[in-house]
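Per reviewer request, we include the raw input and output of the structure prediction for the construct analysed in the revised manuscript.
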Amino acid sequence: MGSLPPSLELPSPKISEKSLLELFKSQQNHLNYFFQHLSLPQTLQFTQTLLQCRGTIFFTGVGKSGFVANKISQTLISLGIKSGFLNPVDALHGDIGILSDCDVLVLFSKSGNTEELLKVVPCARAKGAFLVSVTSVEGNALSNVCDMNVHLPVERELCPFDLAPVTSTAIQMVFGDTVAIAMMGARNLTKEQYAANHPAGRIGKSLIFKVRDVMKKKEELPVCGEGELIMDQLVELTSKGCGCLLVIDEAHHLIGTFTDGDLRRTLKASGEAIFNLTVGQMCNRNPRTIGPDAMAVEAMQKMESPPSPVQFLPVINNQNVLIGIVTLHGLVSAGL
């Protein structure tokens, strides 16, 4: 198919920076309205109810509210709190069987009159679950049939027709995730416990991985003695992928480091005399080092610290014995 004739081409949609800024300011005002009118006693009662739940905290909702409910459930799970999302349609076709009298079911609905949720209520009540509606319209049907209701005040939707749920869902998300963090604090969750729930992500790796988990060791180390000639160690300098030589004594104590940058500077300054220079004469005898039990993220911070960044850190034990090397490339490859 060919393109439209010039006379029939549709104008490209455009929006000005001023209009965009006005929209963001309007949304900010709508969110401020929510914060100013939210009932703290209601929110505290809701939070305490979730904290005291002996079973699982289930969330449900339809449409956009369903997506928000699912996301809040995932936030709680990531904090180590037993939670789950219950699809209201699937609940009526068998999934309601997961509920017990130890559970709490939180129903998100802006209007509070969502038909699918109203059908779930008697089934969930028959299972003995405690029911909490989270709604934004006063006097709605859902709040009248649940054990507790939390009102989320919404001034209006940002949508010019006041129809598309873009402000109400933002408020639901802010409310749910803030309550989740309040529960996190009340349960005294530690960084280590949080990291244990995120082992594959950057968050978990930064809190779990230690230097010993990411360092090169043994045959991977570019080592040499201080009496070795620089030119005899070029293969060792370049073949291990570390960009340096680790200079050690016979007992494997670290003496210093010699980098490919040191090689270039020595060659420029010494010329042909480099053929007679030993690594020990030109190495840095005061390199930055790190221990094997330090956190890997600490190693990265140490590499990037003043006066100038470095690409590696020798890893030594308490007796200054070389046991490994951690490189910036290795840390990045590990997901840090």
